[in-house]
Amino acid sequence: MLKRKIKKIFHWALSLCVVFMVSFLGTSAANGNISLDSLTNGISRLVDMGENQLSETTAEGSKKLSDNNLMNKIDTDNFFTDNDNDQDKVKANSGANSEANSADSGSAINRLERVFFLKEAVHAHINAADYVRLQEMPESLQQAVVAVEDRKFYNHWGFDMEGIFRASLVNLQYGEVKEGASTITQQLVKNLFLSQEQTIGRKAEEFVLAMDMELNYSKDEILELYLNTIYFGSGYYGIKEASEGYFGKEPAMLTLSEAAMLAGIPNAPSLYSPYVDFMLAKKRQLVVLDAMTAAGYLRSSVAEDAKIKPIYLAH
Question: How many CB atoms are located within 10 Å of the residue 217 CB?
Fold first, then answer.
């Protein structure tokens, strides 16, 4: 019931966004920032996408997928063969400073499309060849990421107001950005769609997309997407590349010590990659294990044992 009410409120908010976007597009066209032809073509694209989605929904009716796993909901034939660049999009858009990511986020038409057709936009950024299902990842890895990146992940709707308030106070105190408050969901939409520019408009779009993501995907699906797209440093995007690149094994074979080390990297990949500075990566691993203990995922004795287990890198 609560989710249904929130969904109605969100749809109402989306209606306001439509009014804002139409106004924005019209103003841009009037000022010469966007041509009338471009505006018309963009609207036509939205209409076509909507009609296609409606046709597919009508044809399928209320058919349920036999397997609830996210990858079985991705039509790889449609999303990874029609466009020659689709296979490379995950790497082009997962990087924080990607030019393609920045260009995509700057298009008003693309912004509007991905709000209303979020799943299609997400699927276009997924590399099916390296995609790992959540069931194939050790539970310790999932717990480590949640503990160190977003402890309230399973309780919020895309953003953590308490965390935002706390970070704002810290940043105001120092007069610069010292602490962030991005949730796993926010990090995911930033990695997939947005640039790193610090503007009110981009931040507002991040909040809208995070809420949209929470309404369209389960928490497990969001975590799965996050682990498959996040940058782990040393050129590794996603958990499969990171696990094989750092430890020479599949994600399912990761030990607790290895999982904790990997979970600590995304916070600052250029610093915490064990190939860049192993000692710093090890210190970060200890922070992750302590966070897991504080979150109730590990007993202190288990965490202490994991801290002294040797780590063997693939290279």
Answer: 20
- DSSP assignment of 207-264: HHHHHHHHHHS-HHHHHHHHHHHSB-STT-BHHHHHHHHHHSS-GGG--HHHHHHHHH
Q: What tens digit of pLDDT does each residue of 247-305 get?
A: 999 999 999 999 999 999 999 999 999 999 999 999 999 999 999 999 999 999 999 99
Task: Read off the tokens for 98.
Answer: 């990607």
Domain residue ranges of the chain, discontinuous segments joined by +: 1-61, 75-307
Tokens of 91: 């790497």
Residues 225, 74: Cα–Cα separation, whole Å = 12
CA dist., res. 256 & res. 169, Å (int) = 35
- Asked whether the predicted pLDDT for residue 65 surpasses 70, the reply is no
Task: Quote the distance between the C-alpha of residue 310 and its chain's center.
Answer: 31
Distant-in-sequence, close-in-space partners of 278: CB < 8 Å, separation ≥ 6: 313
CA distance 264 to 280: 10
Residue 80's pLDDT is 34
- Cα separation values, 40 from 26, 29, 46, Å: 11, 10, 10
pLDDT value at residue 116:
82
CB 100 within 8 A of CB 110: no
Cα dihedral angle (216, 217, 219, 223), rounded to 10 degrees? -130
- CATH superfamily, domain at 75-307: Biosynthetic peptidoglycan transglycosylase-like (1.10.3810.10)
